[in-house]
């Protein structure tokens, strides 16, 4: 019984160390994305971080916040605030599925600024879709 307990602890340690490696890789990706966004000539983009998050949620409704942060080049906390903004304003619906969230972008909502409010979110998403 002692050996199986020791073996289990070793197995658990391997799982943990594997997740640390994954965390490290994701953190490196986030750093690279952030540096790329800050590089000379990349000081701004045509779309906001809110738009970038919305696009990713539309493309991959079950994406985890960490991956959104890495791809956009912002912190997970910033992603949380953006998702809260989008949800409070009625642009997305969040549903809990097990331990993860599933996001639905409400594509019939108009864009917010007066210059583009005659267009719907779905039209923007269609324009930038792959």
UniProtKB/TrEMBL annotation:
Residue spans of biased composition, Basic and acidic residues class: 9-24
SUPFAM superfamilies reported for this sequence: Winged helix' DNA-binding domain
Region (Disordered), start-end ranges: 1-42
Pfam families: HTH_24 (PF13412)
Source organism, top-level taxon: Bacteria
Protein name per Swiss-Prot or TrEMBL: MarR family protein
């Amino acid at each position: 019984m002692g050996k199986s307990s020791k073996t289990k602890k070793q197995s658990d340690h391997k799982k943990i160390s594997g997740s640390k490696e994954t965390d490290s890789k994701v953190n490196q990706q986030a750093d690279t994305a952030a540096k790329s966004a800050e590089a000379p000539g990349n000081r701004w983009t045509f779309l906001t971080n809110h738009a970038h998050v919305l696009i990713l949620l539309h493309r991959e409704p079950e994406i985890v916040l960490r991956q959104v942060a890495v791809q956009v080049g912002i912190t997970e906390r910033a992603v949380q605030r953006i998702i809260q903004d989008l949800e409070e304003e009625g642009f997305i619906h969040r549903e809990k599925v097990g331990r993860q969230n599933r996001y639905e972008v409400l594509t019939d909502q108009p864009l917010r600024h007066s210059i583009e409010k005659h267009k719907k979110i779905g039209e923007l998403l269609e324009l930038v879709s792959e």
